[in-house]
Input
Amino acid sequence: MSAAHPSDTDDVAATATSQRLEFVESKRPLVFDEIDFTMNDPEFLAATLAHPLEYAQRVEALVGHTTMGDLMPRRDDVVERFLTTWTDDELGHARALAELMRHLGLEPLDLDTFSPPAHNQWISALGRASQSMHDVTTTIWATSGAMNEHVAMAAYSRIDTMLQERGEIALHETLFRRLRAHESAHKSFYATYATETWARLRPWQRHLTRFAIRRTWAPVGATDPSDKPAFARTVLALSPDTWESELVQPLQAMAERILDLGDDRPLDPFVERAVLDCFDALAA
Ligand SMILES: [Fe+2]
Ligand SMILES: [Fe+2]
Output
């Protein structure tokens, strides 16, 4: 099916995407001044959540400062609108987590001088030169976006459960419940958009997209070898016994659902490999 000849299926997919976009734009925002940082047991929280908060605050600031639009110079209005709200959301999450860390005596990372990785310029140039390559880049962005938002959602969900079990209701009600809901909304948009764009790719574009995701996907904020131990520490703090069912299996299933070649060919276990890489980096 070609992008140049929209069909009824394309229309249905586009409608699903625009509904997801409207949901992202209309969800309840995280308002910094409304966050209640009252805690019963900050010492316990600092000891238990130091690694997850350090990882999450760094990643939120990192993605918020990475001008994702540069990766997709021919982006459509849907992506433009999503990126506007999404960037605001992620920077708001980073600010809230940084403040929570200060309350706990932890030091947040300052990324105000951050500049995006150099290879983003090459991806951008490729997309400017070729619409076909731009479509591949966009599908990779949306698929890995859905996977990484699941990582964020699972982490905040786990932290939120821990807070409720400890009676830390203020943080649950005014911060982590909202963070979890935001990441869920982001994930839903990315997954729907990835499914829509994948349906329009030609076979060679699909093979290239699949190849790139299988070979390059790493948990958000853990692409560089030096950052992998931080992700492993976070997993061990939040889900030492359940990371396979809470992370690996849903991420692998999501990738296989989106990147379906129509012949039931499963993907190799690239998600598990990526997570194990992080554990190996921690052990090294
Ligand atoms: Fe976030
Ligand atoms: Fe997000």
Q: What stands out?
A: The radius of gyration is 19 Å. The mean pLDDT is 93. The pocket of fe (ii) ion (ligand 1) is lined by residues 60, 90, 93, 152, 183 (CB under 6 Å). The chain has one domain: 11-283.
